[in-house]
């Protein structure tokens, strides 16, 4: 049994046989003596890991894996092999397990470029899917913890983080056109308009498009945030403002003041004049005029919030 990892003897024999077959394949074009030298060197190396009392059994079991003698090399005056050496080598080359083992053995000797090319070829052949890099900077993790009010002891699971990013992106991309369409309806003449496709801008930013300004995606998101906040706030405030303006125009005291300013006939009582003035003003109260007034009030209030007091 190997001293290093204490695998059972059968596993050790199987692994050794596989390694010897790989050596046979690698040096198939070399002389028989060269192959024998490499095979002998490998067997000696393995025997050092086998306890002395099991070495004889180990070699016997190993030879059972190579019934043609000399571990697959040609031996004279023996019965002909059931398969030629070339056929055996072809079978070994077609063994996926041996191919993977050989690739893993070569990996430490390959450059990053060679590894990338090999990975690309394997992906083209259907082995796995392209891997998306998900390495996050310490600054990003710190900002994320602060935004979500997470403690340092709570682990962030990258799979769930990626899933949440997709959900938030879907939420924003569905909300954005609704907000801008609502704003166009409220204020068709306003100069506040989207600068482009937010989805496209964010995609270019994530992919590192050099033609996209670094702050463009951030600025567009902040603009959308201000617009949502402004419209929401305006809807809550405009109701009371509209009510005050309506009462100011149609209150008895306001109508009475308007009547006195007109100096009408002295033969008509003041109360009658006030009623007539009310009827006159009421004719302007149509569904369309009220809706337009409410929309304008919302738009004016929202735009004042977006632009700020200094604009």
Q: Which value, in Å, is the CA radius of gyration?
A: 42 Å
Detail the poorly predicted runs: 1-6, 72-86
Could you state the order of secondary-structure elements as H and E?
HHHHHHHHHHHHH
> How would you classify the helix and strand content by structural class?
mainly alpha
Structurally, the number of domains stands at 2
- The total strand number stands at 0
Distance between the termini: 84 Å
- The coarse overall form would be rod-shaped
Describe the structure.
With 311 residues, the chain is mainly α. The protein folds into two domains: 9-94; 158-311, no CATH class. It contains 13 helices and no strands. It has helices at 9-26, 32-47, 52-64, 85-93, 96-106, 112-124, 138-148, 158-186, 198-206, 216-250, 252-262, 270-282, 287-307. Helix 1 packs antiparallel against helix 2, helix 10 (216-250) packs across helix 13 (287-307) and helix 11 (252-262) packs across helix 12 (270-282). The longest helix is centred in the C-terminal third of the chain and has 35 residues, at 216-250.
Task: Put the structure in a nutshell.
Helix content is 67%, strand content 0%. The chain is mainly α and 311 residues long.
Write out key terms for the chains shown:
2 domains, 311 residues, mainly alpha, disordered N terminus
Q: Any chance you could write out the topology, listing elements then pairs?
A:
Layout: H1 9-26, H2 32-47, H3 52-64, H4 85-93, H5 96-106, H6 112-124, H7 138-148, H8 158-186, H9 198-206, H10 216-250, H11 252-262, H12 270-282, H13 287-307
């Amino acid at each position: 049994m190997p001293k290093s990892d204490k695998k059972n003897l059968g596993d050790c024999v199987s692994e050794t046989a596989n390694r010897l077959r790989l050596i046979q394949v690698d040096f198939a074009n070399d002389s028989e003596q060269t192959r024998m030298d490499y095979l002998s060197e490998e067997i000696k190396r393995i025997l050092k890991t086998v306890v002395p009392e099991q070495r004889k059994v180990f070699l016997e079991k190993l030879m059972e894996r190579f019934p043609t003698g000399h571990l697959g090399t040609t031996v004279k005056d023996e019965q002909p092999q059931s398969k030629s050496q070339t056929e055996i080598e072809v079978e070994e080359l077609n063994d996926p397990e041996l191919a993977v083992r050989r690739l893993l053995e070569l990996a430490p000797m390959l450059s990053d470029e060679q590894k990338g090319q090999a990975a690309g070829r394997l992906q083209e052949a259907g082995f796995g899917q392209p891997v998306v890099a998900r390495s996050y900077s310490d600054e990003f993790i710190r900002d994320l913890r602060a935004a979500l009010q997470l403690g340092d002891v709570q682990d962030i699971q990258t799979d769930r983080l990626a899933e949440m990013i997709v959900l938030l992106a879907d939420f924003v991309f569905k909300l954005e056109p609704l907000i801008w369409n609502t704003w166009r309806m409220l204020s068709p003449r306003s100069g506040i308009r989207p600068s482009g496709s937010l989805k496209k801008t964010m995609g270019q930013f994530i992919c590192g498009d050099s033609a996209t300004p670094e702050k463009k995606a951030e600025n567009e998101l902040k603009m959308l945030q201000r617009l949502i906040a402004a419209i929401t706030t305006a809807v809550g405030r405009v109701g009371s403002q509209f009510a005050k303006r309506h009462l100011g125009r149609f209150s008895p005291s306001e109508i009475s003041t308007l009547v006195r300013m007109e100096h009408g006939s002295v033969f008509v009582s003041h109360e009658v004049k006030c009623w007539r003035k009310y009827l006159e003003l009421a004719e302007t109260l149509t569904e369309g005029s009220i809706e337009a007034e409410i929309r304008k009030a919302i738009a004016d209030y929202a735009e004042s919030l977006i632009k700020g007091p200094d604009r």
